[in-house]
Amino acid sequence: VKFNRGRHGAVTADVSAVEASVLASAVAQLLHLLGEQDAVDDDPLAAMVGLPSGDVRRPEDPALARLLPDAYRPDASGDPQFDAGEAAAEFRRYTESDLRTAKRAQADRVLETLASLGGSGRLQLDRADADAWLGTLNDVRLVLGTRLDVTEETYEQPLPDDEDLAHALQVYSWLGWLQETLLDCLEPRPR
Amino acid sequence: VTAPAQLDRPETEEVVDPDRPWVAIVWNDPVNLMSYVTHVLIELFGYTKAEAHRLMLAVHHEGKAVVSTGTREQMERDVTRLHGRGLWATLQQD
User: For a Cys-Cys bond, which of A21, A54, A76, A191 suits A72, CB 3.0-4.6 Å?
Assistant: First the structure.
């Protein structure tokens, strides 16, 4: 499978049954991960008045933390009064839920386009679909890359003897190639 | 006898100008494709291809690059948008 430019700005890809199944399973795992709840200390008063509540902490799972990173590092300001940990928590409290929702909506859209194939066949993506695919392929690669602890040299190294690990690295590498073919079809649009 | 006049000289401390601008920084990571980072920088900030490519290379070779400058609120918005695209971004006071 690779992405091609179709007519009228559409993007197409001929997807085999095996490829569709690998993609659907990877996206389903992403959705599952994004659905996991954070450790939240609920504040009933805030919930009553509709304010974001609780102390939303950085996810402990490194893959989820990579999708939902801290916005402030400890050295974010030279001001000794500035509490970067509190700033990061505050930022997370107000933005993380929306970020999860947006990523889930994007992944849902990818699953819908895959389901429309009924197993295998030609994907026909309009620009909004293609953007969802681009973002979701990236999220899936972030999760897999974090789990596999890849480095910039991973592609140059021989595959490990462990069959499961070798297979996962091949899927990771294939997803990167697939994302690259999609990027080749999409002219960036500033917005 | 006399003593030298006491000069009223406060301890010097680093004073941080609260008006100093904030910056949004993109950090290098081993997963994001070079072409993808360039694509996102064009779409989010309206950089030309050449500018976005130069910033992407700075991220790749130097480990990070400033991609946007402004108030803290503006940089929080930009970091939110960068996280939406899966780039590893933080904001800090310049």
Answer: A76
